[in-house]
Amino acid sequence: MELLCIRQWISGLLPTWLSAWCIKPVGGALVRQEPEYILLALMGSPLKKIMLCSSEKEIFSVEEQVMVQHSVIINNMIEDGSYNHEESKIPLDCVDSKTLKKVIDYCTHHTHHHNDNQEDLEAWDAQFLNVDSNGLYDLLMAANYLEIRNLLDLIYGTIKNMIKGKKIDEIRRIFNIKDHGFTPEEEEQNRKEYPHFY
Amino acid sequence: MAGSSKTNRKKGNVPIEHECQLNLLPRDIWVRIAAKVASNSIHDLFNMQVSCKVFLDAASSEAVYQHATMRVILLVSFLFYLDRSKRRFLDHCIEAENADAILRLGLTEYFWIACRGIAMELLARASTEGSVEAGYLFAMLLLCDHEDEEEVQRGVEMLEFIRTSGKVERCREFFADIFWERWVDERPSDPRHAVACWSTNCFTRSTMADVNDVSRVSCVHRLADYNVRVFLEMFRFY
């Protein structure tokens, strides 16, 4: 409540034209940020937290700014007022605790280290995605659900590299494709048409 | 990739091993991944298509063909000799308005099939879809063929747009690679005289050959004529 009053007080003091200068990245796009939040951050006020609830009902407390910058879904919930800081948790029934923790780690790291040099960020990303295929799949589902564009692009690139230069049988093994869905005739036709791909 | 959601593990009596687990991800995710694969290598795309039906469906979508790279498709005259799978792939890309694929077809139509009308339409289309190289070639051919003043002026304007965006050199290199020591059945007309600049007052008109730094030349029509000369030098004939 106290923070809300401070915010309103600051908002009343600031000229409206200042809003035009206050932009923030959200899910890969730039959106306008309320200048009073920027000023609060500069003043060193305690950063707002939000509560995320995994499918296993575990609660994770995260800086609001971290998730708002990266997740379009969470940003929209905060902006349209459907999330009440005092009472609410954001339920993420599609995301288990282990995956949610990783997603939060990714968003937190990229918020606090966005000025690091590109090589360091890429090395961190490579280490972050050093997971088994189940883990990669779960991260992809979570990133898609939360609409975290940067993380999605990162995972797409990783999967692209998993396919790169591989023959068909290798791709089937990597993606655990036990039933490829082709009839025996179709498979035979594929083998005739692309013999060097097998 | 054997992931599965918590929800699916809990419900249903269908044994996991008989489901296609790739179906657990939304189709549009696989489409986006296939588009990335296609923008890097069409061989990888073909492999993906033939791996399973889920991949085939995703990797055959319009978004994938629109962004597929043409880098490994042999250019121009060799389009005649593409195998069935590459030819089919190219046709899909053209249908999906892949600018690079349309450019390649336009090149073949002009220089090897000698269908100027169709070629110019294709090049204009590729240029509209964002191919700078197609825009450059279209401008050059308008200036070389100089059928009427309106076409010449259009060529000058298109070339000037490309020139001011700093991409002329890149376009020249692109086509130099294509035409270097490669026979063409139909070559652009060589006007042998200035087409764009008819001004008798233009002080660079008689000195273009001596100009070492064309950035100092302000007459856009003279620059267009100069670029036509450079373009025609790319064609070598045995």
TrEMBL record, chain A:
Coiled coil: none
Domain SKP1 component POZ as annotated: residue spans: 48-111
N-terminal signal peptide: 1-28
Keyword Signal: yes
One GO term (biological process): ubiquitin-dependent protein catabolic process
Pathway(s) where this gene product acts: Protein modification; protein ubiquitination
Cross-referenced Pfam families: Skp1 (PF01466), Skp1_POZ (PF03931)
InterPro entries for the chain: SKP1, SKP1-like, SKP1-like_dim_sf, SKP1/BTB/POZ_sf, Skp1_comp_dimer, Skp1_comp_POZ
The UniProt record lists the keyword Signal: yes
Domain SKP1 component dimerisation: 150-195
Annotated keywords: Signal, Ubl conjugation pathway
Family label: Belongs to the SKP1 family.
PANTHER family attached to this UniProt entry: SKP1
Name of this chain's protein: SKP1-like protein 11 isoform X4
Organism of provenance: Arachis duranensis
Gene from which the chain derives: LOC107491915
Automatic annotation (TrEMBL), chain B:
InterPro entries found in the cross-reference section: At1g67623-like, At2g35280_TPR_dom, F-box-like_dom_sf
Pfam families assigned to the protein according to its UniProt record, in alphabetical order: TPR_27 (PF23310)
Domain At2g35280-like TPR: 82-180
SUPFAM superfamilies listed in its UniProt record: F-box domain (SSF81383)
Protein's recorded name: F-box protein At1g67340-like
Taxonomic source organism: Arachis duranensis (Wild peanut)
